[in-house]
Design a protein that fits this description.
The chain is of the alpha+beta class and 225 residues long. The chain has a five-stranded mixed sheet. Helix 3 crosses helix 7. The radius of gyration is 18 Å and the shape is globular. The two termini are 34 Å apart. 32% of the residues are buried.
Amino acid sequence: MRGRVLAVQQRTDAWQAARLGRLNSSHADRLLSKGRGKSESDKTKRLRLELVTERLTELPTQNSTVTAPMIRGIELESRARVAFEAHSGSFVETVGYVQHEDPTVMAGASPDGLILGDDCETPVACLEIKCPTSVKHLEYLSGGAGVVHPGTSGTAPATYLPQLRHLAWITGLPITFVSYDDRFRNINHHLYVATLSLNQLALDEYNTLARAFLDNVDTLYKSRR
């Protein structure tokens, strides 16, 4: 694994401070959004301004509204992690925030867990957990939702691909995607698992795009400092 792991708990003030002004996995979809022709998208331009503003003010620019599904997802995350451990026979280590291995690259990610190898010490994959609606979960189980890239036991939904690419870029680890819903009466339907290798995630391309974007963020920040 690469990257620098910070000993902070997710969703705390220390975690929020660690993320400020950095390109995080939640930003990846806007980084990769397409504009007209070869032009940069409005979403990417807005993201650049937000990151520069966070660096200048040391305050978050987005105060996301916490919805009932989001609260449910947060509450179920640990249960989903335990279910995955039972399914896979692997232990999962929780971490707060992982910074890019290059200290000059202002980027990071907050994995839902690091899957440990047979020695129970070395991370071998990065875990991403989703607790969607039951309809969406069933869609994953049925092979719908615009899935991409074959995995060992399923496929990862295309909508999460930018986030998964960013996680792999930061950690240098393949990705295991998990969807969890314990509302199904059949326990065999509670867990959906898919894996993505590093080769499947086009990380060279992502690295080029992310670094070019962050260079522009740095330039704008230095001009306004």
